[in-house]
Amino acid sequence: MTVWLTYLVTGAAAGLAAGLLGVGGGLIIVPVLVFAFLQQGMHADVVVHMAVGTSLATIIFTSISSVSAHHKRGAVLWPLVWQLSPGIVVGSLLGALIAKQMSSDNLRIFFGIFELLVAIQMALQVKPKPHRPLPGRLTMAFAGGIIGSVSAIVGIGGGTMTVPFLVWSQVAMKNAVATSSACGLPIAVAGAVGFVLTGWQDVHLPEYSSGYIYWPAFIAIVIASVSLAPLGARLAHHLPALVLKRLFAILLAGLGLRMLFSA
Asked: Which of 15, 43, 127, 153 is most buried, by CB atoms within 10 Å?
């Protein structure tokens, strides 16, 4: 029961964060699942891979909900989604393969460093300035590949990279956020498939898993996150965004440090 409560609270926190701040929940879900899986007695060699794979699977559903809301407002630039998606799919599958080759400790350290960098960016409100027009299709596909591979390795929907790239390429912020949410779906689908396939034969898998996706955690997190995201969106209109972002940055920094220094 305690484990299920942890999953539900994690999903609720991820849903609220997505609604309040427009950020994906992977940066919360992955570290909490690592600690929860260790407490459950999962093998140390697979806990980080299980957390990342499970996070990617949950993002499929949260992304669908987010894309639907942005599409109704006409904010998603679908031609850009189609240009980025081929690279994103290939990159996400490649990211799953790279993660498979990494030890649990190395994957944990990589995630911790990435999370700290995101926390610093959010706390200091570092934003790219429009610099150049959108590149051609080949460069867009290459950018999608980088975004997809890194996102799959750390179990996120890619918004922390997609949004800055699009803003840097002279896309308006509201369109960049909406388009990024649409790009999160192919990242999550391809990444989750990759983690299922690469983990299928792992001898340390727990019961109720398919490859590196643990279904009990997946179910609880999806139920809670999808339920709480609309509340977060409503609260966003009444709470100070800058204060919330800096508080969230402190949370991310704490989780990132815990990931880095937990042996």
From this structure: 15
